[in-house]
Amino acid sequence: MNRAAMLSRIRARREPWDLVIVGGGATGIGIAVDAASRGYEVLLCERADFGKGTSSRSTKLVHGGVRYLEQGNIGLVLEALKERGILRRNAPHLVRDLAFVVPNYDWWEAPLYGFGLKVYDLLAGQYGFGPSQILSREQTLERLPTIRTEGLRGGVVYYDGQFDDARLLINLATTAVEQGATLANYVQVVAFTRSADGFLDGIVAREVETGEALTARARVVINAAGPFADHVRRMADPGIKPLIAPSQGIHLVLDRSFLPGDSAIMIPRTNDGRVMFAIPWHGHALVGTTDTPIDEFPLEPCPMEEEIDLVLTTAGTYLRKPPSKGDVLSMFAGIRPLIKSGEGRLTAALSRDHSIQIDGSGLLTIAGGKWTTYRRMAEDCLNQAAVLARLPDKPCVTARLMIHGSHQQAEQFGHLSVYGSDAPAVQDLMNRDAALAQPLHRALSYCGAEVVWATRCEMARTVEDVLARRTRALFLNARAAIEMAPRVAELMAGELGQNEAWEAEQLRQFQTVAGSYVVR
Length: 520
Hints:
By secondary structure, this protein is of the alpha+beta class. It is 36% helix and 22% strand. It has helices at 3-12, 26-38, 66-70, 74-90, 109-124, 137-143, 165-178, 229-236, 305-318, 374-388, 423-432, 448-457, 463-470, 473-476, 478-496, 500-514, and strands at 19-22, 42-46, 61-62, 96-104, 133-135, 154-162, 182-185, 187-194, 200-207, 213-217, 221-223, 244-255, 263-267, 276-281, 284-288, 292-293, 330-339, 354-358, 364-368, 439-441, 444-447. The strands form four sheets. Strands 3, 4, 5, 6, 12, 13, 14, 15, 16 and 17 form a ten-stranded mixed beta sheet that branches. A six-stranded mixed beta sheet has the order 7-2-1-11-19-18, sandwiched between helices. It has a three-stranded antiparallel beta sheet with strand order 8-9-10, with no helix packed on it.
């Protein structure tokens, strides 16, 4: 992906795009992949970096949704289980099977959860990741050696998927470009243009780095701005009724010693009505999440004290060694763009299904949903957008479209496995320059070659882009990421032709952001 080339395409185009997408998260980029692979001319604009918002801040699970089964939303579970299987097939370098253990401390838990998870297996059908089974106390301890033993009776194990959300998003963006889409990060849509009949027929945007004004005409504009969807809708119609009921969820990252095995823990019920997970992820333990209704939210949300306490308290109930704030290596918050339902404030009870709405201005908005079903969301959205824009009817092909980087034996590349088929190219950078093979920090495996690759080939523009989303350093160990930042800025400046003043400003900006990932 080459950003300069993307901007040149926008400047040069005089004909209307078939569709313009506002928002570069999982939903927006998923739509871009689908549209381009059908042969439509598509432009996507993201005001910050791809995945800056919700799409890089998930629980890192590709799952059918055990809790949705409890809510009786069988349709969503079936759809998610099918999409889970498709995603594992199309991106095997990033999606893998993971065993989840539900520890049992009361006599009734094993039969109850065992039955529910057998139904989950049955619904998965051909897309199943493995059969659930009831575990003895000894088998549970073998899988979860750090679990609290007092009162432990046994457990139930079931299988779901795990992935790296930001890495998958970057690979999807590359896939979209390979299919012919035009994608631009740091291009903010600031207004819409209208045709003589009053319907939207294009966008006015600002290139964030230079302030350059850009325009693009469109047969249809799709709003895929996630939690910020209502903000985009108000640009077209200030009087619209809000669609989104935002909810914040946080995660804490601990040392792997808290969860040393290869199995995750699923805690079936917390004080706020959610399930909670502790999962092994990139050599660390990831614990979360919460469900806190909010009214206002920034682009960089911060965990609240009560959320941190809830996660630590819940984890401490199940782990032999209760984690404390001093054990937290990093923390992060994300905003769920849930669909409003009545006047209630219990966001844990709101559906995670998606909604498509066409406002009177002609703006098509897609909201809700979850990472696992991004592909199906994109298909549904594009089918409606094509009708609205009077585009020729073309079938969706993404169910069988391999995602960029797809590689069946990616684990052979070690810590570069998340790059899949790109790993040899990153390795080649290391081989040609020994300095680029050196780790950026003793606590993490990332090296200079990954910074160069992200800047040259993955449209990384800032130190944060590299340390938060092209690598996951900020999400894994915030203090280590802060210490890595000067070297990252130096390498990026060389690639981008920037000076020392740019490096200093990048470090200032990154340290401001990274501060909210450190527990005080």
